[in-house]
Specification:
- The protein is an all-alpha fold.
- The longest helix has 26 residues.
- It has 28 helices and no strands.
- Helix 18 packs antiparallel against helix 20.
- Helix content is about 70%, strand content about 0%.
Length: about 575
Amino acid sequence: MAHKTLLGSSTSHDSCLDLWREKNDQLVRQAKVAQNLSLSLRRQQLVQDVLEGLRGLLHSLQGLPATVSVLPLELTVICNFITLRASLAQGFTEDLAPDIQRGLERVLETQEQQEARLEHRLRGLWDSVLHVSSLLPELLPALHHLAGLQAALWLSTDRLEDLTLLLQTLNGSESSASEELLLLLKTWRPPVETSDAPLTLQDARSLRDVLLTAFAYRQGLRELITGSLPRALSSLHEAASGLCPRPVLVQVYTALATCLRKMGKPQRALLYLVEAVKGESIWGPPLLEASRLYQQLGNTAAEIESLELLVEALSVTHIPEAPQLLIEVELLLPPPCPPGPCVPEVFLEAAVALIQAGRAQDALTVCEELLSRTSSLLPKRPRLWEDARKGTKESPHCSPWISAIYLLQGQAWVQLGAQKEAVSEFSRCLELLFQVTPKDKEPGPASSCEHGCTSDVVLQQLRAAALISRGLEWVAGGQDNKALQDFLLSVQVCPGNQDASFHLLQTLRRLDRRDEAIAFWQRLEAQTDLPQENATWSLPLYLETYLDWIRPPDREALLEEFRTSLL
């Protein structure tokens, strides 16, 4: 009743509106003071006070009937409240949707749009609100601001179709739903706030720039994973030219370097990596990519140096900075975008580089260090995936990682001429690999943004690599019958692996099992594609390199020789 009395006259209404607006502005100033403080209990308490103050102010505003004169302030308070909640949570979640929905319903209340208010989907509410907004030009700046937050929520939750339709409506576009989202974001022009508008934590245009950069980066990564390299390059260039804080810019430069390396342009890739490592902090991703680039160029010394620097960088404890009290690019990136490389993969690549450089003993030392760090993650019982489904905490990637350690240790012993130890390590690798039953399309050890590989593909190739490696050691020891069993099994566990097929063919020929060799050779000749080469681009680099080691040097010549001998 008190509110109704206060708003009984125009003077009282204006007086309350001024008080509410001053309260909003005071809370925004208070948040900006807190922003300049370092991480502390005082900062935390100050931010919490601002959040509760905005919540209380919103409760007061929404306790009254909606009016057009108050709605610009009310929508601004909603935007400030959502911005602060999302920044404190360090991400957008669906529990922010009811605040947006309530704001849209309040706009429709002023137009007595009862039927539209019954629409429960946000997409439908936005259609109704933006349809009537032409009658309420004073609401447009605040509505565009709220639309920016809706766009952030839909981008974070991958509702790209809804986001596209929303932006088309905001832009007044008549295009089809297939119009490129990146172009829609670039052409969106939120109205400029008037000088006497209520204060905001972040204006709509700043939010638009953040959305543009985040989407361009997400799109570039998606295209990089699927192998659309020219499109990925374009999207990543767009991200790099946008509003990028330093940590995100390092990730964008690293992704650009990865893209250019895959396109066969190592010198341009190197330029982006140089830019990425500039500054006081040493970042993990560009160092890891540098090692891959040097490996591709055959510069083993530089590759090892990059990996050594990477291990050093990963061992440094970084003091976290206080998060900004606004929407930043990092908040809109998917959790497939880790801030740094995974440590096991770094160690595995270092071991591969050392073996390639002829430093087998050093490679064994690296493997032993990684084994000491990861073996405790394995469950005591062998039913790894059953345990995982029951809720145990070990990483689903730990078994492939540890298997890869045994595989590389076996290869190091091969280089040292210790056949018994090599066979033992390959056998331990296989024992562990055949205990694992992966889920389809679950990220495997190649879980960084560069890779689009699933765990079953990695496991398949690891099993084939271990079987071929052990088979080659049997061959070296004159035990062709044992080698035959491993090569047969490698063909079964990884159909289409041509390396396994060639090794099997050669072994059958040495054993003078002519009929079987001819039958197998005919099947091999009928294979027109090379699935192994087409698939391995998405494997982790240590595994790609390993597969190169066990590949017959000249398969075509071997096939021709076999064809001639048969004829």
